[in-house]
Structure formats: structure tokens, C-alpha cells
Amino acid sequence: MGLPRWNFSDNTERKIRIVTLTIVMVILVYEKLYGVSTTQYPAMYLCVFSLIATFMTNAVQRRYFTYVMEYAQVFRIVAILMTCAFFAIWLLTTFERFTEPVTPSHLIYNL
Predict the structure, then answer these.
(1) From residue 101, how far is each of 6, 97, 104, 110 by CA, in Å?
(2) CA–CA separation, 49 vs 86, rounded Å?
(3) Terminal alpha carbon distance of the chain
(4) How far is it, in rounded angstroms, from Cα 58 to Cα 61?
(5) Geometric angle at alpha carbon 68, from 63 and 69, rounded to 5°
(6) 76-83 long-range contacts, Cβ below 8 Å, gap at least 24?
(7) What are the boundaries of each domain within the chain?
(8) 23-69 per-position pLDDT tens digit
(9) Closest of 56, 41, 38 to residue 86, by C-alpha
(10) DSSP state at residue 111
(11) Which residue spans traverse the membrane (predicted)?
């Protein structure tokens, strides 16, 4: 009895890792150029958890976590869930940023 294992081939895991990290890289570059603090924080957390989720492959778990593979699998599942959650939060905050009305200039405090 144990947790379900994802027995993807090394080639499939490499493709998933490349796609995920490319998406995260595009989001971080976008946030660097056009982001505000409300969207940058979810993007940073997305980056942190996606790195953990993508590099905890089955090969890494077998090599470094031989005796605690179930705990490593739980760690990977939680990292994937947190990655998905922060991606959803980033999408929501980015969507809200583009759909909220612009503050009139006479309401902005200027020094």
C-alpha cells in the first residue's frame, strides 16, 4: 500500500520539465518587464514550487530518496498542487489588473 506512482518515461518527464520551466520563464520575464507587485509575488512563488515539482522526478526519487520514496512523492504532489494554485492566482491577479478601471489622474497623489 502506498501512493500512486507516476511511471513516466525519462523522455516524457523531460518534455514536461521543459514545457513547465519555459512557461515559468516567460511569466517571470513578463513580470520583470510589465509586472506590478500584486502579480509578481504569485509569479515568484510559482517559480519556487515549479522548480521543486519538476526536478523531483522518479529517477531523483529512486536515487536520493530510496527509503523515503513515499514522502518524496508526497512532497512532489504538494509542489505540483502549489504550482497549479499559484498559476491560477497569477492568472486571476493579471486578469484583474487588465480589467479594473484606470484611476483618474486627479485622484493620484503627486508630489
Answers:
(1) 45, 9, 9, 19
(2) 9
(3) 66
(4) 5
(5) 60
(6) 76/52, 77/3, 79/49, 79/50, 79/52, 79/53, 80/49, 80/53, 82/45, 82/49, 82/53, 83/20, 83/46, 83/49, 83/50, 83/53
(7) 34-96
(8) 999 999 999 998 888 888 999 999 999 988 888 888 888 888 888 88
(9) 41
(10) -
(11) 43-61, 73-92
What letters, b where the CB count within 10 A reaches 16 and e where it falls short, cover 62-97? eeebeeebeebbebbeebbebbeebbebbeebbeee
Q: Cell 504538494 belongs to which residue?
A: 78
SS3 content of the chain, % helix, strand, coil (to 5): 75, 0, 25
Q: Can you list the positions of beta strands (E) in 1-111? A: none
